[in-house]
Specification:
Helices cover about 30% and strands about 20% of the residues. It is of the alpha/beta class. It starts with a strand and ends with a helix. The model has no long low-confidence stretch (mean pLDDT about 95).
């Protein structure tokens, strides 16, 4: 079976909820990321794209069900370019890239654009349909922004608790202190701020028309452990998780161009990295934050390497506590994880985060001249995804 390669990556800035992107529809955000990524490979004729695979966690509103196809049309690509939208909640964008890479490896496609989008600001409220017409009682609108909604009563109660409560369970299970979480969060902001100041994101982030962001909107360069220590617990009165050591709610989009080795002549560029391994794993829904552990271990096994060979890790920081738990389980040097900042600072627009970490990983591998890297993400309701990339320049 042949290999799939990453050729280009880009994303929009990530905006805070009700922030700079509050007036920008998710399909427009997706179109910006799609067009911006294709601009990185200008010799690629859009008509040569075999498929667009797009990730999205919410599809109940302006996303128009198949936001991937909407992005293709809004970006001005030929109507002959097909597109699909996939939903694996927080992992949707990385899932899209995994699906695209499989299509290339099996010979079903030569060039695939994979990406994802989320507008947590514009996620609509929904009204459940009544069992009978014209109910006399009030009807409650339910937010689709994040977490469980319209829960099936047959679902075990312990699985349908809030994402924050799930991570308080992880905290208790692994005895990860508030101090460690706050220190991790402060470092995320410091690294993200430094990466922007040093120009790392200049080539990875594309501007959105009529939005004046110059960096990701939730990065706080002045964050300190001392400031974070003053925040009150968000989920338990005596808990450890706060709004400062968890990822915020965000809007944004990301994309990557994938292709076969021979597609280099079609794309008009050299590949950045090879997709060397992938894995999808699952566990109890209330332990979802720990799911990347086995996903990454399995992806490394499929790539034929071990953790001792990995030089860079991009782990989506849904919460500091689950990130620390994963790093501890892998027994790796925290210094190789999220070198350019993570989701606690940059943000976590659900469907877009997978594309962000994959594109960032490819570029950090090149910058640091490391051969092997891992992108991993936890997913609500108990799933994890991981992809291993090989820097093909270092492999030569």
């Amino acid at each position: 079976m042949r290999s799939a390669f990453v050729y280009a990556a880009a994303r929009t800035h990530f905006g805070r909820i009700n922030g700079a992107f509050a007036g920008t529809r998710p399909d427009d955000l997706a179109a910006v990321a799609l067009a911006g990524t294709l601009a990185k490979v200008p010799e690629l004729e859009a008509a040569r794209i075999d498929d667009v695979v797009w990730g999205l966690a919410n599809g109940a509103g302006e996303d128009n069900r198949n936001v991937g196809r909407m992005a293709v049309l809004l970006a001005g690509l030929p109507t002959s370019v097909p597109a699909t939208t996939v939903n694996r909640l927080c992992g949707s964008g990385l899932d899209a890239a995994m699906i695209g890479s499989r299509a290339i490896e099996t010979g079903d496609a030569e060039v695939v654009v994979a990406g994802g989008v989320e507008s947590m600001t514009r996620a609509p409220w929904v009204l459940p349909k009544p069992n009978r017409a014209f109910p006399v009682d009030n009807i409650t609108a339910v937010s689709t922004t994040l977490g469980w909604r319209l829960v099936n009563p047959a679902m075990p109660k312990g699985w349908t608790i809030s994402l924050g409560e799930c991570n308080e369970i992880l905290q208790s299970k692994f005895s990860i202190t508030r101090e460690r979480q706050d220190a991790f969060a402060a470092e995320s902001h410091a690294k993200a701020s430094a990466a922007w100041s040093e120009g790392f994101y200049d080539d990875l982030v594309v501007p959105t028309p009529d939005v004046g962001l110059t960096c990701d909107e939730t990065i706080r360069p002045d964050t300190t452990v001392e400031k974070l220590a003053t925040l009150k617990p968000a989920f338990r009165p005596d808990g450890t998780i706060t709004g400062g050591n968890a990822s915020p709610l965000n809007d944004g989009a990301s994309a990557v161009v994938l292709g076969s080795e021979s597609a280099s002549s079609i794309i008009g560029a050299s590949a950045i990295a090879r997709v060397a391994g992938r894995a999808t794993t699952a566990l109890d829904p209330d332990l979802f934050g720990y799911a990347p552990v086995e996903a990454a271990n399995a992806a490394l096994s499929r790539a034929g390497i071990s953790w001792s060979q990995v030089g860079v890790v991009e782990l989506n920081e849904a919460f500091a506590v689950q990130s620390i738990a994963c790093i501890d389980a892998w027994d790796i040097d925290p210094a190789i994880v999220n070198i350019k900042g993570g989701a606690i600072a940059i943000g976590h627009p659900l469907g877009a985060s997978g594309g962000r970490i994959l594109g960032t990983l490819a570029h950090v591998l090149h910058e640091r001249k490391e051969r092997w890297g891992v992108a991993a993400i936890c997913i609500g309701v108990g799933q994890g995804l991981a992809v291993v990339l090989e820097n093909i320049q270092s492999a030569r």
